[in-house]
Amino acid sequence: MADIQLRTHKSPERAALHSVHSLDAFVFTVPDLDEAARFYDAFGLEPKREGDRLDLYTAGHPHAWGSLYQAPGVKKLQYLRFACFAEDFDAIAARIERLGVPRCSPHPLGDDRGLWVLHPEGFPVQVVVAAKSAPDAGSEPVVAPRPPVGTGASPNRARIPKVHPRRLSHILMFCAKVPEALRFYEDALGLRVTDRSGDLIVFMHGVHGSDHHLIAMAHSNGPGLHHLSWDVANIDEVGRGMEQMYAAGHVRGWGVGRHVLGSNYFHYVRDPWGSYSEYSCDMDFVPGDYDWRAADHPPEDSFYAWGPKVPEDFVTNFEVEAAKA
């Protein structure tokens, strides 16, 4: 695989826009790092232990998409880190100061780079200067060549290769304060709304080029992580990913189906802590030189165009429910 070069400077057509360009990393705690390593390895990621930390990579990509630490109790989101170009950092910091966004000390699991602020729901958000990990173009589906006449196109089950996601596409957060969170991401960090369904769910993209959404918010009774979404090559890999997780004992989830907003094909796998990892392919893309016109869609389009029945607990925020127990 060719070396992946991550961009470090903004495009001239976006010179006047000062915005984060990527969700640089997610950080959460789980009760058992060994269990986490087994789950993400089965999913097709490359989990790597670094002391008391488990970093999540995708095959052939240099970026660590997120980190997990071990802590007693339930899974818990600790903080999010967003990245911007060096030429945008001072303007973003000044805007955050002007808006009166509360600052906070670096998270104990983080570092002192950049600046730290509080999300409206009370968890820390770090903004740093770093290379752009969000893609500059949409991921092209990989189409297999047609086999010779008389030969079946599908491999035998025993010869189906393991699915390895190519990169992180987005995360979806539970959120009790959707309007406030929307203003934080839009006004302070410079993200833009792509599509929404009222305050039920909101999808946001980066103005320097990103998938249809690099972060989304679903209304809930508190903050938490609903799912991590990982880009794969085609719908066949979505289905094969589902099958490989079934074989690994992870049978709870939702899919295969297709979303309306974002247009991607999907299968969600429930992890050991009640949130999900999603195999996703062929998502809509917002180029860095294009101003997507946001739209408000009816609730029936906020879930899917087609697919199996949604599990009853699919939108349960187990981080909040566990805290009540």
Helix content: 10-25%
User: What is the annotated CATH architecture?
Assistant: Roll
Order of helices and strands: EHEEEEHEEEHEEEEEHEEEEEH
For the largest beta-sheet, the strand count, sense and barrel status come to: 9 strands, mixed
- Proportion of β residues? 25-35%
Amino-to-carboxy terminus distance:
48 Å
What is the overall silhouette? globular
Taking pLDDT < 50 over at least 5 consecutive residues as the criterion, the unreliable ranges are: none
Estimated structural class: alpha/beta
Tell how many strands the DSSP assignment holds. Answer: 18
The name of the CATH topology is 2,3-Dihydroxybiphenyl 1,2-Dioxygenase, domain 1
Mean pLDDT: 95
CATH secondary-structure class:
Alpha Beta
**How many domains comprise the coordinates?**
1
How many helices? The count is 5
Radius of gyration: 19 Å
* Side-by-side strand order of the widest sheet: 14-15-16-13-8-12-10-9-18
CATH superfamily: 2,3-Dihydroxybiphenyl 1,2-Dioxygenase, domain 1
Structural overview:
It contains 5 helices and 18 strands. The chain is of the alpha/beta class and 325 residues long. The strands form 3 sheets. Strands 14-15-16-13-8-12-10-9-18 form a 9-stranded mixed β-sheet. A 7-stranded mixed β-sheet has the order 2-3-4-1-5-7-6. The protein is globular, with a radius of gyration of 19 Å.
Features:
325 residues, 9-stranded mixed sheet, alpha/beta, 5 helices, 18 strands, globular, 2,3-Dihydroxybiphenyl 1,2-Dioxygenase, domain 1, 7-stranded mixed sheet
